[in-house]
Amino acid sequence: MAPRVFLITGTSTGFGEELVKVVLQKGDHVVATARNSSKLSFQGANDSNSLLVDLDVTEKDSIDKAFHAAINKFKRVDVVLRQQMEINFFGLIDVTRKAMETMRDLKIGGVIQNVTSIGGQIGVPSFSIYCTSKWAVEGFTEAISKEVKPEWGIKFTCIEPGDFRTDWSGRSMAFGEISHPAYDHINAKENAQKRNGTQAGDPAKAAKVFYDLAVMDDPLMRCVVGTDAYSLINQKLDTYGQSVKKFEKWSNSTDAKGY
Fold first, then answer.
1. Is it the case that residue 177 has pLDDT exceeding 80?
2. Is residue 196 over pLDDT 80?
3. What is the C-alpha to C-alpha distance for residues 79 and 111, in angstroms, rounded to an integer?
């Protein structure tokens, strides 16, 4: 089988960086992107198996150029992994749109992975805006997966990690400077800094899961990653199931007469 071509955003740190390593180890090809790709360096990368590209997901022209460069070099893109930054849900939409267009026009199909978070399923105190963005990605990805024609062969996966030892809660996390006395019972900065570097999840192991999800014959719509995420989603499913059953009479009492 010919090497798959992965286009991965945000490869300077975290999950993106680790996934590039796995892709190269597996013998596949990678288009690794970052705002400044000149700073990227990966063991085993060479001119035949990798392409380092500048990509600013807030700029549609930058997205177009990145995909154009990928097609020029490798003639295809099989997997696109998009790590959505909290402030840029619309950048994710633009990357997804371009990925779909590329896979559809080349008639190659492919897999689009959107990395969300267990925060896209579970509300997390002091991270309401973050969770909002993740829930938006979940809804967008599920809806658009139902809009594609089967013959296009385009599959979608929401990857929902729990807490991992990336730099997410370290230097990459910014905090508001305005505090409010009503919320003196919550210290978001202190809580984040306490767990930074002590989380259960290993990003390198997560990247192997991301890869396995990308190459399976029938990719999942959703997959939680991490023991904490697994525990939390099961708690939610249990609670939600009990709630649905408890209020089923009310839920089923609203149909129009004769419907």
1. no
2. no
3. 5
